[in-house]
Amino acid sequence: MNNLSHLAIFIGRNKFYPLFCVFCVTLAFLYTDPFTHLNLRYFVSYVGAFCGLLCVILLAKRKNMGNLIGMLAVVAECYANYLGNNIGAGLPTFYYFGSHIVGLITWEKNQDTHKNVKVRSLSENAFLYTLIFLIAAVFFNVYLTNAMGVENTVYQLITNCFIFGLGVVAQLLLMMRYSFNWYLWVILNVLVIGLNIYTNNIVIATQYLIYLFNAIYGICEWKQSESKQTT
User: Fold this and answer.
1) What is the longest distance spanned by two Cα atoms in the chain?
2) Confidence band (pLDDT; 50, 70, 90) for 159?
3) Angle at 23 between CA 18 and CA 29, to 5 degrees
4) What predicted TM-score, i.e. pTM, was given to this entire model?
5) Contact by Cβ (8 Å): 193, 208
6) How far apart are CA 160 and CA 141, in angstroms?
7) Cα–Cα distance between 154 and 141 in angstroms, integer?
8) For residues 81 and 87, is the Cβ–Cβ distance under 8 A?
9) Residue environment code for 14-35, b if the CB has 16+ CB neighbours within 10 A, otherwise e
10) Neighbours of 113 (CB within 10 A)
11) Are 121 and 178 in contact (CB under 8 A)?
């Protein structure tokens, strides 16, 4: 396990890592054959994926610039999910946008000498509140989806609800600098990959496959930082 952690950090810190991520999502976009027929959903997804990849990589590295780029990414992602009727995956982006603004301010005030954000540990009480908030967010998305009259299959509805709940909670923990946020992103990324394969969006599926690795890298990077702060 320790060797896998070192491997994830080695890859995540490599200067070619961001280029490789963008290359992969570009290949996925080209797979949609945009030069023959440019699909708006795929194009917007690609723009969101490009910005989103840079955002999550910077956040995993504890760099505040990730919050700024994140605001650009969520606008594109929201529209792409709307075009695919994935309301549960699209609604949190409004919240993400606002949280990135809060993150810009909060992270700026809590940086170490290397301009990296300082990491916090999640207490037992905070974990309980996180679980309650997650359950409430899931049921809130059920209500919103029905209120908006969006047609979803049972699988799509359930998956979207958990994506919504996990996204809201994970983003909150991320902006509050809790390292536990990355575990929730791992679960969310797996759900989003499955959902976009189900709804036939190869661009977003590829994007979140990279996000999945980046979340694992985030766990390792933030845990290492957390241990250094406590020693």
Assistant:
1) 58
2) confident
3) 130
4) 0.83
5) yes
6) 8
7) 14
8) yes
9) eeebeeebbeebeebbeebeee
10) 5
11) yes
Share of the chain above pLDDT 90, in %: 35
* Paired tokens of 91: 């609604």
Say which residue the tokens 């994830």 belong to. Answer: 8
First to last CA, the chain: 21
Say how far apart CA 187 and CA 171 lie, in whole Å.
13
**Tokens (6 digits) for 29:** 């976009």
Res 61 pLDDT > 90: yes
**Could you tell me the pLDDT band of residue 127, with boundaries at 50, 70 and 90?**
confident
What is residue 98's three-state secondary structure? helix
pLDDT of residue 129: 84
